[in-house]
Design brief:
This protein is mainly α. Helices cover 74% and strands 0% of the residues. The chain has 6 helices and no strands. The mean pLDDT is 91.
Length: 131
């Protein structure tokens, strides 16, 4: 297994955990989303536990990726996590806005990412309703 790639996926999961805990709590829908994303990233229970411990620690902070595609994937994951509990806390919105600004993803490109995630979520909900 490629160690740098593994570290990148682990960092992505830790960042999602930081967003999940940004409002001070973590609910069932957020835990389910974290578990699903962990599987999608090819990580296991141990890595999820480590990410949760990191997120609960005093040094928890976003670790912004260097490359553009990973940055956009992080923002998409952050949007999904913000929406998971059905409530957009002010702390989550601020964290998202700061991350986007620090990664220089603003304006039209940011709106495209947000629209894409919303469209994907709506498509999934439509599929779930018809199943």
């Amino acid at each position: 297994m490629n160690t740098p790639n593994y570290t990148e996926r682990q960092r992505q999961l830790r960042n999602i955990v930081v967003m999940a805990l940004a409002d001070g709590s973590i609910g069932g829908r957020e835990v389910a989303l974290l578990a699903d994303r962990c599987v999608e990233l090819g990580l296991g229970q141990a890595e999820l536990q480590e990410a949760l411990e990191f997120g609960l620690g005093d040094d928890a902070a976003l670790e912004l990726p260097a490359d553009e595609s990973t940055r956009e994937a992080l923002l998409a994951d952050m949007i999904r996590m913000m929406a998971a509990d059905g409530f957009l806390a002010e702390t989550e919105k601020r964290l998202f806005a700061l991350a986007a600004a620090h990664m220089n993803i603003v304006g039209d490109r940011l709106q495209e990412i947000i629209s894409s995630v919303i469209s994907d979520q709506n498509d999934r909900e439509g599929e779930d309703a018809s199943a």
